[in-house]
Amino acid sequence: MENNIPTPSPETIQRVQTLLERIQKTRPTDTRAYLEAHVELVEMGYEAGCAIHALVEPKITRERKKIAKYDACKTPFGLLYLAGCAIAGIAWLLHASPNVCVYIMLIASAPNGVISVIQTMTHQRADVPYNAIAEAISIRDYRMLPILLDLAEYSDASAQQERIKLCAVEYLPQIVKERGFSFSVYQMKTLHGMLSAPVRPSKNEPAHDVKPQVVILHALGHIGDETSLRLVKNLAKNSYYPTLKQAALETLPLLEARVQRMGLDLLRASTAPVEPNKEYLRPASGAQTEPKDELLRPHNSD
User: Fold this and answer.
1) For residues 42 and 26, what is the distance between their CA atoms, to the nearest angstrom?
2) Distance between CA 25 and CA 28 in Å, rounded?
């Protein structure tokens, strides 16, 4: 995970963990104690958000490594499946029994299917506590957005997902103004997921509101990457919603220029000197003022 979120002190992390445990225990039974812990945590502000992220980061990182491992296992079996399809096609052309073709397809696809089932059964969305995400959402600070994007990836509650999306819509304009913000690959992936437009409405259904997607699109012109560029191009070409399509067309030149600058920053050589002939080592000019007896010379060990 990219380190774009500062790590608070151990004392702050311990304090936030204590408050989260108190919130979890007292919320259903003791409203007063719950509100006191909640208010104290919210008053800590962004520092508390960083502590929440530090508490759940090991779980998120572990889950991401697990997903990457399963994906790496599925790749060779996917190639095996394609090879099986090719063999089945050749067998069909050679007028082999249809049963033979089916058996080849099943044998080729079985390992990939088993791995997918295991991945689905073992994927626990990092087990991020519901109350930790809820408290992070309650902290009203635009700097919380990278933290919320990480937490959104592992939130099972659709209501929390929607609240984080609304926070993104609220915070992104401020982040664009401030500049200097960096987002990890995973955070950008979550943001791209929020960009997905609603399904096309049926004939008698009113059009969906795409204002959140428009705000995210305009922000991507300033914080997006190459993946963002592909998404924006697709929306500019294929979006059903005219407002969203127009926003994508407006964002496209900004994002293309940004991606081009990012590529140049990676490939650009160091700045050439103004007067190259004066940058090389050369003999000192002027008369030698130091006595010859005081100049450095090799030590004779004999």
Assistant:
1) 16
2) 7
In the chain, the number of structural domains is 1
Better pLDDT: 257 or 65: 257
pTM of the entire predicted model: 0.67
Reduced to 3 states, what is the DSSP secondary structure of residue 100? helix
Report the percentage of the chain scoring pLDDT > 90. Answer: 21
Residue 52 domain-assigned?
Answer: no
Q: How far, in Å, CA of 104 to CA of 87, rounded? A: 8
Which residue range(s) make up the domain with 158? 136-198+210-266
| Number of alpha carbons in the 13 Å side-chain half-sphere of residue 5 | 28
Amino acid symbol at 237: K
For residue 155, is it left (φ>0), alpha (ψ between -120 and 50) or beta? Answer: beta
Is residue 183, in this structure, part of any structural domain at all?
yes
DSSP assigned state of 211? H
Contact between residue 76 and residue 111 where contact means Cβ atoms under 8 Å apart: no
Position 84 in a domain? no
Position 5 scores a pLDDT of 86
